[in-house]
Request: fold
Amino acid sequence: MKPHKLQKKKNEMQPEALKTAAPKGNSFGKSFVDAVDRIMSKSYNQVLYYVLFTILLSVHYYTITPYTNYAFFGGDTWEYQSLAVNFAKGHGIDRFGAIEQFEEYKFGGFDQFYDGSPEMFHSLAGTQNSYRTPVYPLFLGIIYKIFGVNVLIAKFFQLLLYVLIAASLPIIGYRYLSVAGFLGGKLAAIVFLERNAMLANELMTEPVTSFVAFLVILAFMLYTSKRNTFSAILLGLSFGLAWLTKGSLVFIPVFIGLYIFFKGIKEKQTYIHSFIIVVFMALVITPWSVFASHNAHKFVLLSTQGPGALYDGNNEFSTGDWAPQWNTDSTSFYNTDGMSEKSPALRVANFYLQNPGKIIELPSQKLVRGFLPFQSIWYFMAALLLHFVFMQVRWFHQGIYARYLKIALTLMVFLWLYATYNKSFDIVYNYFVEHAFLFSILLAISSMLYIKYATKLLQLHPAFGFAILNYIVITLIFLAVPMPGGSRYVVVIDYVFLYLAFVIGVQFLKHHWVNTPIATVKTIIKKK
Reply:
């Protein structure tokens, strides 16, 4: 079939809302779109673009970002750095403390309020630490084993992981949504790195967690496209890697696995592939599980701090983030519930049973503290809500008044987003902090609109939705881990929200404005 006939057939299969007329009075725009389409339609051009874009972004952001040449001595960093250096020096994969001379660990920026000190660090030499998931310490340790303990090189590789994600977004967008997806992905890539390049300055799990979550998304995309044994193997391996990277990724394999199983429940191939996925996931997890269980002298499926996070995020002192003070207060609920021998999940359930007022209050506060500070989430929600409103206008009303309404709505949303981008968001932020339940409702409405429009009308892959759902569930069950600008849990999928926001936004502009901008303006002028 000839390309133009194939495109005509594809347009006929699209939902009515996405069918577009030929651009009127916009020959430059059409020429630009055609040129991008001709270039990106060739696979080798996509590879060339990816390599060049990756090199350009890596050099640019590594040059302009003020990375420090030391690891912070405090928080979680001193553990990760210690585990990585000790591994690089041949002391094993899970050994904490100053086995080597203190200078070998390249610490700086001491946290004066932290209870750690060089003396205590030496006293902990060789302590076994396997409650940390192994992928990030191994990532750092391998870099140090190859390049020596050079913190700047480690931070470059962390930046590179972000760049590899960013450079992929335009290609993913093109493959699923043609030129509109490419442009949306390109905008998302630039904004993502502008917002997140500095995160690579911290020796924390976020860059690796972001990248592994992205690998799961890519593996799921490949599986839905190919549905063969090889893609099932890759998906299983990515699931296992995710579980060994960070406990906060735990539900993504579960959601995707259930989706695959129930979507093809009557197909024999689904059962075979499900078995393959589980086997290869187990092949990744089992060696670490055996190793950690041996060292801990008890069965350990995954290294996780889940029980502690459950208590710290679900107690009478919590406002949505860390609240560990219950542990030192003898009158706190968990110190007086008489259930110390019971499972953490049962004790948390009992907390809410005894404090029913917290059932709505705490989850709302968690969502506010976890999601509200991210501008990318507001872009995402705004794009979805605009699409929804414009669909209603299209279906229920036409004519000049509909055009006025569309102009007013678009200007209002863009002015609002401009204000948030310029840090003029304090009033809105404080309002939703005080009325947390309203933000929860807004996030729920946006999630429902995404479910309604994502796969059919907007032609978005379900992998992105499962990534968002994972972190909503994680935040609701545990807590919003505080950091400047939002939750450490949620920041690892900032690129998901940005990609969806810009791709939906570009589609919105294309389908409601770009195709007939001159005709719309002329009609309004004539009416006046």
Notes: The longest strand covers residues 71-72. Residues 313 and 479 are 5 Å apart (CA to CA). Residues 151-196 form the longest helix (46 residues).
